[in-house]
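Q: Got a minute? One more chain.
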Amino acid sequence: MLRSKVAGLGKYVPERVVTNEELTRYMDTSDEWIRERTGIRERRWVEPGDGNTTATMGAKAARQALERAGMEPADIDFIVFATLSPDYIFPGSGVLVQKLLDMPTVGALDVRNQCSGFVYATAVADQFIRTGMYKNVLVIGSEVQSTGLDVSTRGRAVSVIFGDGAGAMVLTATDEDRGFLAHSLHSEGKYAEELIVKYPSSNFPSQKYFEHLQQNPDDTSHFPYMNGNFVFKHAVIRFQEAIMEVLQQAGLTPADIDLLVPHQANLRISQFVQKQLGLRDDQVVNNIQKYGNTTAASIPIALTEAWEEGRIKDGDHVVLAAFGSGFTWGANLLKW
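A: Always. Here it is, folded:
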């Protein structure tokens, strides 16, 4: 049976470290308030002139992943790029990575599934390899969110959470008894407006929205909105459901999980899921303390760090899981 296995991993985060203490200069908050609600101590944000965009950071992470895979850009057959913050409204960032890495004219697909984007992108890439259409696929999750946040007391509930960064994974075909074993992908669009950036949009032409802002300067619908408690209650349920679904597909149980790499949405969510599954601290990757929620980039950054720290060995069962805007959620099960 043809499967896809991880050949290389990479990550990149901006140099600028934004601590909770720094945020107190812009809003009425405190280090204790942020840590108690999210577990976050600091995050990385791009800054003007540092050359970081969603695509350039994705390319940097990709170069590291390719080097570790022992491959050149020319070896890649297809790109799957997950982000909610593309460089432009169109085109997508995948084609920009193709340009930055000077690849041949390979296809590039952008996945817009926000926090679950990397889980979805991984499942898509795996299917391309399983069918034999492509041998080597580059999967990237990258975000620049800091430039679109309401960094004020008004927006603190959301703006303290998010960070910038990128992660990448090279998948390659294998007929060995390893690689991705199962995927679980779901959505529930009736809750789309519980976690959303509503405007500008095709439903509200830009010119009309600019006029609306002039007349309603306190309108915040162009900033991210999140119904925090509502999202939390759904996330802890859906995380577990997706994880159990991929385990059941492979005939496994939570006791067979060697490492869980959850989307870094909130430390309390990860800890709740960990407790429900009966996992030890060393079986769960949490780095939200350092990077905040980097949305589509959070899983590949966390997976790369876990690999760098020697927390993954051959034969381990690794689960990637995410929940986010849409609502969308899912999981991937991998035998290393």
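A: The mean pLDDT is 96.
Q: Perfect, thanks.
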